[in-house]
Amino acid sequence: MTAILGGLIIGFSVSLMLLYNGKITGVSGFLGGLLKKETMRDPVRIFFILGLFSGGLALRFFYSEAFLLPNEEAPIDYVIAGLLVGFGTRLGNGCTSGHGVCGISRLSRRSIVSTLTFIAFGVLSYFLYKTFRGGL
Amino acid sequence: MKGVVAFLVGLTFALGLGISGMTRPDIVQGFLDVFGSWDPRLLGVMAGAIGLHLITYRLITKRPSPIYDSVFHLPSKEFLDKKLILGAVVFGLGWGWAGICPGPGIVGLASGKSPFIIFVISMLVGMKIYQIFARSVLNEK
Fold first, then answer.
1. Looking at the structure, do residues A4 and A33 belong to the same domain, yes or no?
2. pLDDT digits (tens, 9 = 90+) for A97-130
3. pTM for this predicted structure
4. Least CB-CB distance to A81: which of B16, B80, B119?
5. Residues A61 and A98 in one domain
6. Cβ neighbours of residue B110 under 8 Å, at least 6 residues apart?
7. Residues 6 or more apart in contact with residue B135 via CB below 8 angstroms
8. Same domain membership, residue A87 and residue A58
9. Which secondary-structure segment (H or E) carries A126?
10. Distance from B136 to chain A by nearest Cα, in Å?
11. Which of A68, A100, A115 corresponds to the end of one domain?
């Protein structure tokens, strides 16, 4: 199944980050650091984000199904979602990668609680979205 | 060398997200749609990633240090606090609304499709708003 295979690739990549650089792979944390003067020149953050983007380019040209958008929402929905995701991940110190993958693997209590919380509120949010904005 | 590793990690991470369908908001929202037609794929991705990293984390941290650094930089906080919970609540609300989280957002930028572009710009604005809020209201550095 491609889901598990993709998951293994993700598990492998965060393991490389830990083995070589000794860091947790947290996308929101790396991004947030690039918006701060003290850490904006950190090569690990810069090159990690560039790598993510380059992987995106590879997908675009060799596996464009990765970006199918069957249920395009209105631009305002992406604005609302983006603002909440940006603010929330910095306030809560992490997202699906840092808390969800790396934190749970470390059996961190904070990350387990965070992940259960954002999944629960993700379920609620999508339910509200479907009810009030149409959804799928 | 740290930068080279970080680039390769970002690249493989993106491919993992793409192959597993996590760059598609409909598949992510399908997982959150527990009251409708539930799509288990996100759970499969988490199982694969966590299953492997549970083991590699233990093996790697047995080393005295990482290869290109003198120490491991791991979070030391253990206490649950309001910020952690509230942050997860706000993040979850945004995540469910559009089906995109930070990783797939950046990867999706490369597709050139407007939903990803609008999402990422708004997310960066949201992060910046948090920084200003943290500095002025929470008195953090």
1. yes
2. 999 999 999 999 999 999 999 999 999 999 999 9
3. 0.96
4. B119
5. no
6. A53, A54, A55, A56, A57, A59, A60
7. B141
8. no
9. helix A109-133
10. 14
11. A68
